Amino acid sequence: MRSPQADGPGRRLALDDYMEDFDRYFWRSGPEGFWKLERRQSFQEPGVESWEAFHRGDWEESLALLEGQRGHYEEYFGRIAGHGFTVHRVRCVEEPLSPYLQWELHLLHLKAQCGEDTRVLGRDGIRRYEERRTLPELVVLGPWVMYEVLYDDEGKLAGGVRFDDPRAVSECRQAIQEMHRSGEPLADFFSGHVAPLPPPKPAEERI
Length: 207
Prior knowledge:
Blueprint: E1 11-14, H1 15-26, E2 34-38, H2 49-55, H3 59-67, H4 70-82, E3 87-92, H5 99-114, E4 117-121, H6 123-129, E5 138-141, E6 145-151, E7 157-163, H7 166-182, E8 184-185, H8 186-194
Parallel strand pairs: 2-3, 3-4
Antiparallel strand pairs: 1-7, 2-5, 4-8, 5-6, 6-7
C-alpha cells in the first residue's frame, strides 16, 4: 500500500487537537463514506467499561456491558445513516487472536449488527499489502481528510497525522476499499473463528 506520506508530510496533531479535528469532519463524510483501516493487534482503551472488565479478567461482565450498549449503537448508526453516509472498516486479523482482538471482535460484531460495514483481512491478505511496509492505522473521512492514527508504546491513542491533499485522500480511500472487497464479512469470520473461543486469560495470567 502506498504510504500516506508519499505526497508530502502531513500535519502532526496532539490527542486533543486530533479529536477536535476528527469531530469537525466526521459528520460531513457524505456519499464517499467513512473508511477505517485497523492493523494493530492490541490496543489499550482505559475508560471504556467493557474493556476495563475484559482487562481485569471479568469476561462475562465485559460481554454484558457490550450488549448493554446495543441501544446506543443502534441510535448512533441511525444518526449516521440520517447524515447520508456509512462507516466502513477493514480489520486486519492475525491468528491466533490476541486477547484484545478477541474482545474487540465482539465489539465490532455488535457494531456490525447495528449498521457498521466491517470486513476482516486475514494473514494472506495482510501480506499482500505489506510487501514494503507495515500497514498504517488510517481513517478517511469523505473526500476531505484522512488521518494516520498514532498510538503510544502501550497502544493508547496518542493523536494523529492529518493529510488533506485530495489525491492522497482519494488514493488511500481506494486502497482501503480494495482491501474491504477482498476481505471476509465479519459475521462469517466471527461465527467460525471468534464465537467458539473460550474466554481470554486475565491480563496477569498472560505471558
